[in-house]
Design a protein that fits this description.
This protein is about 60% helix and about 0% strand. It has about 140 residues and is mostly helical.
């Protein structure tokens, strides 16, 4: 069984455990999906109702509906769907609203767990770079 908390330390462990679970399922030729991950982590506690609740919360505004048997992409390459899954799992398991889950800690934990992987907030980093470049161009105007 797994003990879930709403803090960065727990989130780092969740990210790493998710990647290990993906690798283990790959070696066993099992589908890497929300239902199987929850059954692996929580055992008999992962009922159909709990899986359904997690899937409902994991459906973000940007994505299509998430179903229990949908294949999850590798967390280190496509982190957003995995982030929404972990966020929903913590919310359901702790009995708190999805907005109460510490998203900043979850994102920091991803950066700790996968330091050389695809950043979660690519668009934010790109816009920050653009703003930085625009500021530099303003300063370097010819006389």
């Amino acid at each position: 069984m797994i003990k879930l908390e709403n803090n960065e330390t727990c989130f780092v462990q969740l990210w790493l455990r998710l990647e290990r679970t993906r690798q283990m399922f790959g070696m066993q030729y099992k589908r890497f999906c929300i239902r199987r991950v929850m059954q692996s982590w929580l055992g008999s506690e992962a009922t159909d109702e709990m899986v359904w609740n997690v899937c409902q919360l994991a459906t973000g505004h940007e994505y299509e509906p998430v179903y229990g048997l949908d294949i999850l992409p590798a967390p280190s390459l496509h982190p957003r769907r995995s982030r929404e899954f972990l966020r929903a799992l913590v919310a359901v398991k702790l009995g708190i609203g999805i907005r109460k889950v510490n998203l900043k800690a979850l994102d920091r934990a991803y950066s700790i767990a996968f330091p050389n992987s695809t950043p979660i907030n690519v668009s934010k980093k790109r816009s920050a770079k653009r703003r930085g470049l625009e500021n530099e161009e303003d300063e370097e105007e010819p006389p």
